[in-house]
Amino acid sequence: MPCSDIFTTYQFLFVPACSVLNHLNSSPFTQSPKDPSSFLSPMNHSTHISLLPALLLLLPLLSSSHPATTTCYTSVFSFGDSLADTGNLLRYLGKKNIDVGRLPYGETYFRRPTGRFCDGRLVVDFIAQAMGLPLLPPYLARRSGHGFRQGANFAVAGATAIENGFFMEKGLHVPWSNNSLGIQIEWFRQLLPSLCSSDSDCNVMFQNSLFLVGEIGGNDYNYPFLQARALDEVISYVPPVMDAISSAITALIELGARTLVVPGNFPIGCNSAYLTVFHSNRSEDYDAFGCIKWLNKFSRYHNNQLRVVLKRIRQRNPHATVIYADYYSAAMSMFRSPQLSGFRSSPLPACCGGGGPYNFNSFLQCGNPGSNVCADPSSYVTWDGMHMTEAAYRKIATGLLEGPNAVPPILNTCPRTKQKTSRPHYVLLDDDILDG
Question: What is the chain's mean pLDDT, rounded?
Answer without folding.
Answer: 83
